[in-house]
Fold:
Amino acid sequence: MTEKPKLAMYWSASCGGCEIAVLNIHEKILTVDEVFDIAFFPCIADFKTKDVEAYPDDHITVCLWNGAIRNSEGEEMAHLLRKKSQFMVAFGSCAYEGCIPALSNLTSKEATFDTVYKNNPSIDNPEGFIPTTSVQVPEGELTIPEFYHTVKSLDQVVDVDYYLPGCPPEPHQIWAVLQVIVGALLEGAPLPPKGSIVGVSDVAVCEECDLEKGEKVISRFYRPYEIVPEAGVCLLEQGIVCMGPATRGGCGALCPEVGIGCRGCYGPMPGVEDQGGKMLSAIASVIGAGDETMEDDELEREIQAVVDTIADPAGTFYRFSMAHSLLQRANVNGKGEAA
Amino acid sequence: MSETYEPVIVGFLCNWCSYRAADLAGTARIKYAPNMRSIRVMCSGRVEPQFILKALRNGADGVMIAGCHPGECHYVNGNIKAKRRFVLLKKMLDQLGIEEERVQLLWASASEGIKLAEKVNEMTEALRPLGPLNWDEKVINRNNGYKAAEVLPVLEEA
Structure:
């Protein structure tokens, strides 16, 4: 038998949930092990960067990359693994569109450092030390990666072959995608065209959601802690912001069906560039305030009152897609305030 | 810069009122700022937030949405929908650091050519002091433009 194809999985700005999701395919992981040699997978096996550097180009068949590009280490590794891999897969929401790490694009690097290292109840840092990329110590120079101002998705840094959305991707979808790859490698089956978003459905989460849907006229939105949702009824109808209408399905609507509004982790619908913009449209269309008999002042007041109940529109509508949105980040000064 | 900065405004004008107002302004030979690029849409309710965001990202300094007065919409309440989106969008744009002068909603009926012309003049003048939006340069690529010294107090050597 010829040599086995090589699999790599690497993380940058992410939580590690994607690795767990891969292991969550249960006993099928043994099949993965049968088919592939693991070439690089620091989460589960001991590999070093120099091992990857030593590989010839295109040595790795498939690299599953999870995590957004947050610092210079992520960028460097992305370039390295791109060079060494035949197929680069943006695995999970962070790599695909920035996800939670990219929410910090709504503020600044300095404000982030301030919160993380200085003004935080659990931090004791009277000298106000914050990380710098290099420092001289008696033994020599110590360096750490540079923390970037803006979080990027993987495809904003290197060429990406496939995208597998989800936070994390659902195990059955991961398995389906692995099967396609294995089929292509072992039996020459066709691969999806480059740039495809795989492991998803082409309908909105609402289509997959079994909750009963009627007309939506909302006079007040609720944050999750403010309401106990009625079982079996569409959450958006109850005033809970649910991203279902603007989010691609594939997950099976797991969250709304247990009473938690869809957060939007599978990204925008096919053909949509900006998930947040679409969601904003959907939310605005269910606002039950203002009608054509009102004067402009009254109209504005009534609508504003409902809009005021949505605490954080940017953070809510772009929870997973900030880095990949049209504006990509906020225009803020060093304190994280509007510049 | 010796030349005056000329802001670029993308105007989404509704077919039934505001585009006709612009037509009227033209036929009446009203002089107003040439800064607005008009795009005719069937209704102000057709204007998706994506259109506005895309215009801002791709070089517009401001966006004007103009439609029929409340109660006068050709489609009964398309303009009310536009207003709902607009109010929510304003809140979101504020979080994204986009000044409120940059995105404006205006009601102008087919007979209000003068009003439309005046509003375009006003918006042009309101945008001038803000300077170009230039999102790619000023916001996205600022990472590279940031001077490290400004940002990070250098850790004292131990």
Notes: Chain B has one domain: 9-132. The longest strand of chain B covers residues 9-14. Confidence is low (pLDDT under 50) at residues 144-158 of chain B. The radius of gyration of chain B is 19 Å.
